[in-house]
């Protein structure tokens, strides 16, 4: 009489030793995942070598682990329980170490950025000689830093200065973030605390390195008052203009919003507005202030007739709080006479109370036109919309200028609202 076949559950278990290689492969896979993940999170200097080795190591390891997993799935209930745990837990734990380590490091970096926020700087050379400012901790907007500013060359060096946590202040006296900045009274922004700023000054040959040696400290004079930033986005920080003169450097705070910050201002502009310079005078304007507030000039520094592109572009400038008085004080310095302030009282007309349209203020600004005969003309502009653009509200310009009224910068011309 033939015997009935045994059910699957009663089949003999497979040898335990056949599952040991899979468990070993799983442990190696978990260690590899955790190691590569922590290397990426820590920005380890040998990360490139680690990733290359892991690539050559991980591919055959992954294939072998998948084969071991397939064997385990084929064995099913004939495999001991510990084989399932050792096959699946190490890769999961490795991924958890990667993710958890990344979260902890991100939290630590966010705390460090709150304690020592990066500072946006704008440097201009007005010394009459070639000059390079202190570059420790600097990054340029486009990546690398070329800090050498040639004499009589109108070029603004726009950089961000970061705190180098790996270099203690004692190791780099008079240099870098810790030597330059301290926490401002508002608890958010940073302001210069140093009495001197390290810089190189002289005549640099054409093949000079970006940071010539030796550098010497020059007296640093920082503006004593900081602008009131009430009503601006909470994440906003002050920026600093460094004007390098022959015997000293002056630091002045200014407010420049990024595109995302400008979007956050929609519907909550209040008395805040952008100020834009349209220079049709004979000389380049290297610094300018409105009611004592420093404003960046950027490409608007050049006389309009010397600009080959974006001549009448009005999408730059700094920000200030508009006073109730329609007479605003404008001060400026030119490239021909650095350090010598000129000033004028400019009438800034106000917009009438809005009526006849629905929508909020998407943006608002004042365009300052300097004419060839030295007159200043101002025009207020509001861009109105809610979810879509509605039109412009403008005040009369009060005279003929090269760029004309604000609506001329729009193509096609926008509707003018009352």
Summarize the structure.
23% of the residues lie in helices and 28% in strands. It has 418 residues and is an alpha+beta fold. The strands form 4 sheets. An 8-stranded mixed β-sheet has the order 2-7-8-10-9-1-4-3. The chain has a 5-stranded mixed β-sheet with strand order 14-11-17-18-19, with no helix packed on it.
Keywords:
3 domains, alpha+beta, five-stranded mixed sheet, 5 helices
What does this protein structure show overall?
The protein has helices spanning 20-41, 47-75, 81-115, 176-180, 259-264; strands at 119-125, 130-133, 138-140, 157-161, 181-183, 190-192, 196-202, 216-222, 239-244, 249-254, 272-279, 285-290, 293-295, 318-321, 327-334, 337-347, 360-370, 376-385, 389-394. The termini are far apart. Helix content is 23%, strand content 28%. The protein folds into three domains: 10-114; 116-254, no CATH class; 257-418. The model has no long low-confidence stretch (mean pLDDT 79). It has five helices and 19 strands. The chain has an eight-stranded mixed β-sheet. The chain is α+β, with helices and mostly antiparallel strands and 418 residues long. Helix 1 (20-41) runs parallel beside helix 3 (81-115).
Question: What order do the helices and strands come in, and which of them pair?
Answer:
Layout (H helix, E strand, L loop, with lengths): L19 H22 L5 H29 L5 H35 L3 E7 L4 E4 L4 E3 L16 E5 L14 H5 E3 L6 E3 L3 E7 L13 E7 L16 E6 L4 E6 L4 H6 L7 E8 L5 E6 L2 E3 L22 E4 L5 E8 L2 E11 L12 E11 L5 E10 L3 E6 L24
Parallel strand pairs: 1-9, 8-10, 11-17
Antiparallel strand pairs: 1-4, 2-7, 3-4, 5-6, 7-8, 9-10, 11-14, 12-13, 12-15, 15-16, 17-18, 18-19
Helix pairs in contact: 1-2, 1-3
């Amino acid at each position: 009489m033939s015997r009935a076949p045994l059910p699957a559950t009663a089949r003999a278990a497979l040898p335990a030793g056949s599952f040991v290689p899979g468990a070993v492969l799983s442990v190696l896979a978990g260690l590899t995942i955790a190691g590569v993940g922590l290397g990426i999170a820590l920005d380890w200097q040998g990360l490139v070598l680690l990733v290359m080795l892991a690539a050559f190591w991980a591919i055959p390891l992954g294939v072998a682990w998948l084969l071991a997993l397939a064997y385990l799935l084929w064995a099913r209930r004939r495999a001991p329980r510990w084989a399932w745990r050792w096959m699946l837990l190490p890769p999961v734990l490795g991924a958890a170490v990667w993710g958890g380590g990344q979260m902890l490091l991100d939290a630590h970096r966010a705390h460090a950025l709150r304690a020592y926020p990066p500072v946006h700087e704008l440097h201009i050379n007005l010394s009459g000689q070639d000059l390079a400012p202190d570059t420790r901790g600097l990054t340029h907007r486009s990546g690398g830093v070329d800090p050498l500013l040639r004499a009589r060359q109108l070029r603004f060096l726009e950089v961000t200065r970061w705190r180098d946590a790996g270099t203690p202040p004692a190791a780099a006296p008079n240099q870098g973030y810790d030597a330059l900045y301290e926490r401002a009274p508002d608890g958010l922004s940073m302001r210069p605390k140093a009495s001197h700023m390290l810089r190189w000054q002289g005549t640099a040959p054409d093949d000079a390195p970006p940071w010539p040696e030796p550098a010497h400290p020059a007296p640093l004079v920082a503006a004593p008052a900081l602008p009131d930033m009430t009503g601006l986005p909470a994440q906003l920080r002050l920026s600093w203009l460094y004007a390098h003169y022959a015997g000293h450097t002056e630091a002045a705070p200014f407010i420049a919003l990024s595109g995302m910050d400008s979007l956050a201002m929609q519907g909550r502009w209040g008395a805040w507005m952008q100020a834009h310079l349209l220079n049709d005078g004979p000389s380049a304007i290297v610094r300018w202030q409105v009611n004592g507030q420093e404003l960046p000039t950027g490409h608007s520094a050049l006389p309009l007739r010397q600009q080959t592109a974006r001549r009448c572009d009005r999408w730059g400038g700094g920000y200030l709080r508009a006073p109730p008085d329609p007479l605003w004080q404008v001060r400026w310095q030119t490239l021909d006479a650095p350090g010598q302030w000129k000033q004028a009282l400019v009438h800034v007309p106000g917009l009438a109370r809005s009526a006849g349209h629905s929508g909020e203020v998407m943006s608002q600004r004042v365009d300052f036109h300097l004419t060839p005969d030295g007159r200043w003309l101002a025009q207020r502009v509001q861009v109105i919309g809610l979810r879509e653009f509605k039109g412009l509200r403008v005040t009369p310009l009060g005279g003929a200028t090269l760029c004309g009224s604000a609506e001329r910068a729009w193509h096609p011309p926008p509707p003018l609202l009352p």
